[in-house]
Amino acid sequence: MIMVLKTITLVSSTLVYSLLFLGCLGLPVQAQSNTFSNCVLGNDLSGRDLSFGNFSNCNWRSINLRGANLSGAYLNSILLNPKLQSYQRRATEEVSSDLTNANLQGADLTLANLQRAILTNANLVAARLFDADLTSATLENAKLDKVFAPVVLLYEANLKGATLSLGDLTGASLASSDLSNSYLYRTKLSYADLQNANLSGANLTEANLTEANLTGANLTGANLTGANLCNATMPDGTVSQQGCL
């Protein structure tokens, strides 16, 4: 009987210390097995392995995910950049989450709020960004090949040097975005809003730009070889027939 009580006491103590240790890390216990959801985190998760975790509806405002591994993670409706109301200044303060070099390959970011997020050099290959909001996000040199992002919001986003080959951005909002020197080989951009976008030096070889709006866009040095521009509105306002049958 005494031995049983000692064993129970030892197990209980171990559990308590484990909980305290995880608390010091600023992570819920479930995070260690990558199975938690509906969480509220505001800590430094840089470099952490969070692959294949379920972070649906998480509120990660101004969180540091620099270099974190979120490949295959489920991030549906995640909130990374809410607008914080400052009552003292009566102004809205924008918060930016840092995901520089983060691995989000194959992650599901459907309906995610990524406004102003910093995703420089991030790996978003084959990620799902359907109807996600990346307004004013920084995606410079990010890898977005084979991304599934119909109707994604990328208004005023920085996509300099980003690769989006074979991606689906049908109906995407890319107005005033910077896509200079980006790689858009066979990217689906039909019905996309590219008004006043900077596409200088971009490679749009065999891209599908059917019905896209390129009014005021900068196409200086862009490669449009084999691109489908059927009924696309060109920078000067004319409607292209290139690619129409």
Outline the fold blueprint.
Elements: H1 2-25, E1 83-86, E2 91-94
Antiparallel strand pairs: 1-2
The coarse silhouette is elongated
End-to-end C-alpha gap: 86 Å
**Order of neighbouring strands in the sheet with most strands:** 1-2
Order of helices and strands: HEE
What amount of the residues lies in strands?
under 5%
Range of helix content: under 10%
> Main beta sheet, described?
2 strands, antiparallel
Radius of gyration: 22 Å
The total beta strand count reads 2
Task: Count every helix, treating DSSP H or I runs of 4 or more residues as helices.
Answer: 1
**Helix/strand-derived class?**
little secondary structure
Q: Please mark out the parts with pLDDT under 50 across 5 or more consecutive residues, or reply none.
A: 1-38, 82-94
Give the rounded overall mean pLDDT. 79
Structure in words:
It is a single chain. The protein is 10% helix and 3% strand. The protein is built from one helix and two strands; from the N terminus they run αββ. The termini are far apart.
Index terms:
little secondary structure; two-stranded antiparallel ribbon; disordered N terminus; elongated; 245 residues
Concise overview:
This protein is mostly loops and 245 residues long. The protein has one helix and two strands; from the N terminus they run H-E-E.
